[in-house]
Design brief:
By secondary structure, the protein is mainly alpha-helical. Helices cover 70% and strands 0% of the residues.
Length: 77
């Protein structure tokens, strides 16, 4: 996988505090950005799926669910 360099400037003492607590700043930034990219892709996929559902799935006729439940109850007895 090809990679690129991204530079981020933070306060020196902020980085020192994080590193003193055992935080790998580079790894945290990479993980955050990778997760954010995954969220964006997921949101795009969900929006595509919503459009497909809105276009392809038709609403049930009025009273369908009531009739369906009654039929299922009768069949179960």
């Amino acid at each position: 996988m090809e990679s690129v360099v991204v530079s981020v400037r933070i306060k020196k003492d902020t980085k020192a505090k994080l590193e003193n607590e055992g935080v790998d700043v580079e790894e945290v930034v990479k993980e955050f950005l990778n997760n954010r990219a995954a969220q964006i892709e997921l949101r795009k996929s969900i929006n595509k799926l919503k459009k497909i559902v809105e276009k392809e799935v038709k609403a049930s006729k009025k009273g369908f669910s009531v009739r369906s439940v009654r039929e299922d109850r009768r069949a179960a007895n």
